[in-house]
User: What shape does this take?
Amino acid sequence: MSDQAQNTFEFGSGQVRLGVSACLLGARVRFDGGHKRNRFIIEELGEHFEFVPFCPEVAIGMGTPRPSIRLVGEVQAPRAIVSRNDGLDVTDALREYSAITAGRLDGLCGFVFKKDSPSCGMERVKVYGGTGMPQRDGSGIFARAVQEANPLLPVEEEGRLNDPGLRENFVSRVLVYARWQALRQQRLSKKGMIDFHTRHKLLLLAHSPSAYRELGGMLARLDNTSLDALAERYIERVMQVLKTQATRKRHVNVLQHLLGYLRKQVDDVNRADLVDVIDDYRRGLVPLVVPVTLLQHHFRRNPNPYISRQVYLNPHPRELMLRNVL
Assistant: This one.
């Protein structure tokens, strides 16, 4: 297997674990006894990731079916109240479960939440105030606890995964985080950190040229600071940078950067073809997969040790076709 292929498949099927709201996996755990089975998660992500299901309501002993709950009170600290049951308050039970569970997610590399859920919604969850009219700016109690306890963990809602850019960005972040977790499971070393950074250079460049330079400068100070402290600052910055989607303009910058490594290897005709297809991508005439595939073809014919290890060329499984619509 080539180095480029290993960038995507190094973990093997089923080794990268994602937390997922159980109803999205087809479990009949919703208040009405139903589910919200998500085809993309189950049929496409399921080919490459292992799922760990969570349903906070069931975990605290609420039956299925059951009366629904809603968030009531202050947006930042709402109460979870059971509908049609004389205002039964299950806040403390949900918070206790959420706090304990959120602190035990070290084996996960990402989480997909159910949108709008009073327990699992990431954002824009209804919170009912004193007027009885809901505000759509709350977060589910469980989702909030998970994010606060695991600030580096890539998270998304299933509804947002319908957006091609957010979908690609989420899967890329999950796999970057998985590589970092694998690195931390070994004995952390300067060599390991430098190798990790080197492999992700062009991916970082696609998201933020300034952060790309900043992170390189950070590692240049490896000899003058605590390795553990620097590693913590480094990955915090990496995951922060990757949250921002790479723009078409920045992808073009990386594609032209890659083309520079072929300037002595390809003839004028092939170079002109590469320039044209990169420009077609810049103008939105072809998706990102087209120039990337053509560049990969030329790098297979003209191997470059540095480029062959770049995650940018294979950030996620090809079968997901995530760059086919970018």
The two ends are 27 Å apart (CA to CA). Confidence is low (pLDDT under 50) at residues 1-9. The longest helix spans residues 164-185. The first strand starts at residue 17 and ends at 21.
